[in-house]
């Protein structure tokens, strides 16, 4: 039987463009592992908040960056995230963590630590992996076989996000989302950016199944060309 070589897929883009839903579905469909790098930054932020680290003090964050043990489960059917053995999948999605994650993830020591975890997970995924985040194509896995950069209008993204957070005001969600994009795009260390060789897909007017099909066919094209 012919074996299919492991494929590494990097999916980046701002909040609400469909990275997590698309990456999980593509990985499940193609039998690949899946890594949500945003969950890792949220997990380290949750730990900082829980341990009384001053989020306004980058030196304090840098000093503590090596302390928490963050473990990601990469099965796309049931991704997991633990900190020092505690399941934090729920607590990392609170408004408090969301409002603080950009400040924590801007600290170079935090990025170095999490980037190392990401590279080691990608290297050990024998069947290949889909890794989604903000700097995967530019910094974490610059040699990925396929890089996709998802975009969508602020209106579409805010409508999607406020649909998730029951009862959330679309305008307030839009503002919080744009504020986080601006912080993530303007930080010095590996900001949110499209890699030069990434394929850009605007998802504003596409359904989720259409985006998934588009990325699956991009992966299949890459595989066929190898
Ligand atoms: N193309 C799409 N059309 C409509 N809704 C979408 C689309 N892609 C994703 N969504 C929905 O938008 C929300 C945010 O998607 P998610 O995958 O979490 O985005 P990201 O990981 O980029 O923040 C989810 O509720 C998801 O189901
Ligand atoms: N590769 C990554 C992934 C996420 N981050 C940071 C910046 C993001 O605002 C936060 C949270 O990412 P996450 O993907 O969970 O955010 P959303 O699902 O888009 O709300 O983490 C990062 O700096 N680098």
UniProtKB/TrEMBL annotation:
> Do you know which SUPFAM superfamilies this protein is assigned to?
P-loop containing nucleoside triphosphate hydrolases
Q: What is its main location?
A: cytoplasm
Q: Which InterPro entries match?
A: Cytidylate_kin, Cytidylate_kinase_dom, P-loop_NTPase
Q: Which family is annotated? A: Belongs to the cytidylate kinase family. Type 1 subfamily.
Give the main EC class.
Answer: transferase
Q: Check the record and name the Gene3D superfamilies matching this protein.
A: P-loop containing nucleotide triphosphate hydrolases
Give the organism, scientific name: Streptomyces adustus
Q: Which residues form a coiled coil?
A: none
Enzyme Commission code? 2.7.4.25
Which parts of the sequence belong to the Cytidylate kinase domain? 9-220
Single biological process term from Gene Ontology: pyrimidine nucleotide metabolic process
| Chain sites annotated for binding ATP | 13-21
For this UniProt entry, the molecular function terms from Gene Ontology, in alphabetical order, are:
ATP binding; CMP kinase activity; dCMP kinase activity
Traced from the root, the source organism's taxonomic lineage reads: Bacteria, Bacillati, Actinomycetota, Actinomycetes, Kitasatosporales
Q: Which reaction(s) are listed as its catalytic activity?
A: dCMP + ATP = dCDP + ADP; CMP + ATP = CDP + ADP
UniProt KW keywords: ATP-binding, Cytoplasm, Kinase, Nucleotide-binding, Transferase
Which CDD domains does this entry report, sorted A to Z?
Answer: CMPK
- Give the subcellular location: Cytoplasm
Q: Which is a Pfam family this sequence falls into? A: Cytidylate_kin
> Per its record, how is this protein called by name?
Cytidylate kinase
GO cellular component term, pick one: cytosol
């Amino acid at each position: 039987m012919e074996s299919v070589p492991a494929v590494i897929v990097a999916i980046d883009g701002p909040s609400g463009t469909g990275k997590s839903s698309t990456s999980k579905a593509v990985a499940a469909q193609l039998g690949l592992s899946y890594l949500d790098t945003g969950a890792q930054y949220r997990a380290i932020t949750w730990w900082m908040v829980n341990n009384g680290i001053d989020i306004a003090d980058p030196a304090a964050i840098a000093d503590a960056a090596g302390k928490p043990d963050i473990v990601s489960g990469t099965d796309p059917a049931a991704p997991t995230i633990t900190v020092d053995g505690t399941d934090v999948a729920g607590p990392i999605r609170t408004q408090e963590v969301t409002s603080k994650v950009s400040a924590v993830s801007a600290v170079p020591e935090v990025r170095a630590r999490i980037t190392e975890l990401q590279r080691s997970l990608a290297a050990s995924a024998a069947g290949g992996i889909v890794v989604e985040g903000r700097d995967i194509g530019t910094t974490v896995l610059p040699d990925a076989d396929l890089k996709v950069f998802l975009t969508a209008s602020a209106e579409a993204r805010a409508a999607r996000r406020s649909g998730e957070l029951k009862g959330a005001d679309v305008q307030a969600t839009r503002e919080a989302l744009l504020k986080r994009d601006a912080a993530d795009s303007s930080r010095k260390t590996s900001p949110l950016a499209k890699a030069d060789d990434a394929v850009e897909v605007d998802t504003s007017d596409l359904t989720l199944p259409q985006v998934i099909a588009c990325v699956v066919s991009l992966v299949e094209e890459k595989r066929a060309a190898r």
